[in-house]
Amino acid sequence: MRTAADRIRHAIAFELIGLILIIGIMTQFGFDAAHTGVLGIAFSLLATGWNYIYNVWFDKAMQKWAGTTEKKQKHRILHALLFELGLLWVTIPVIAWWLNLSLWNAFLMDIGLVLFYLVYAYVYNLAYDKLFPVKTPQAHA
């Protein structure tokens, strides 16, 4: 299993890279970078806390049900989907309020963000696991 320091590095890097990408995308759609940046930072802080808690829970669940924390593609897909669904219920009304959008338009925007983050989370976690593999304890003879 990953150490607390490794999980913190994972969560912070995930959010910083994601925030930079999203602000860039939002400005391409005509939104003010500073205004969306504030929303992005708030969501980033929320998601960072959720990311840490969720990954601990997910690894414990995998260890219990699969006997390992090594993720296959199906585990990575489930991991990304459940993470994003956990955030949706909070983010839609906040997006509507902050960006002065209808709930429907906020929902559509959030779905766009979810689709982005589903792909981003999959690619990021795959790359992170390659760059920083979990050290498996060796069995003592």
TrEMBL record:
The keyword ATP-binding does not apply. InterPro entries: BTP_bacteria, PACE. Keywords: Membrane, Transmembrane, Transmembrane helix. The chain crosses the membrane at residues 12-31, 37-57, 77-98, 104-123. Residues 2-63, 73-133 form the Chlorhexidine efflux transporter domain. It comes from the Bacteria. It holds the Pfam family BTP. NCBIfam families: PACE_transport. This is Transporter. It comes from Enterovibrio norvegicus.
